[in-house]
Amino acid sequence: MITATIHNEKYQTLVTNGTHTIIADEPETNGGRHLGPSPGEILCAALASCSTITMRMYADRKGWPLYEARVEVDMAYVKEAGIVKTTFIKTIHLEGDLTEEQRLRLADIAARCPVHQALLGEITIESSMP
């Protein structure tokens, strides 16, 4: 479970899983102090990190010479007729002595990471107030 807590400090938010803590904030242009990534950037970070970890695990399992995997993710959204349409732009950079077939397979594997799959699936958010 992830918990986010905000106090009086605009808009610094402590995000924790009980073991690790990160700071989320808004950029100064939105009234924050830019002490950490914005919530949207954290969402992009989840996709980027899940993709890189999944490729690393696959390459390790196959014994492929993947030296470095880097994934850049940006997010764009537009609101049309009251519906928000979100596009994640994911750019994969691979370094190592890989064949073209291995590179293509790793890109395919990146699309199979759990976060990528969750974002492609039907999403429901249930909110409650105890």
Compile the SSE list and pairings.
Blueprint: E1 3-6, E2 13-16, E3 21-24, H1 39-62, E4 66-80, E5 83-96, H2 100-110, H3 114-120
Antiparallel strand pairs: 1-2, 2-3, 4-5
Describe this structure in words.
The chain is built from three helices and five strands, in the order βββαββαα. The strands form two sheets. A three-stranded antiparallel β-sheet has the order 1-2-3, with no helix packed on it. Strands 4-5 form a two-stranded antiparallel sheet. Helix 1 crosses helix 2. It folds into two domains: 1-36; 39-120, GMP Synthetase, Chain A, domain 3. By secondary structure, the chain is of the alpha+beta class. A hairpin with a 4-residue loop joins strand 2 (13-16) and strand 3. It starts with a strand and ends in a 10-residue tail after the last helix. It has helices spanning 39-62, 100-110, 114-120, and strands at 3-6, 13-16, 21-24, 66-80, 83-96.
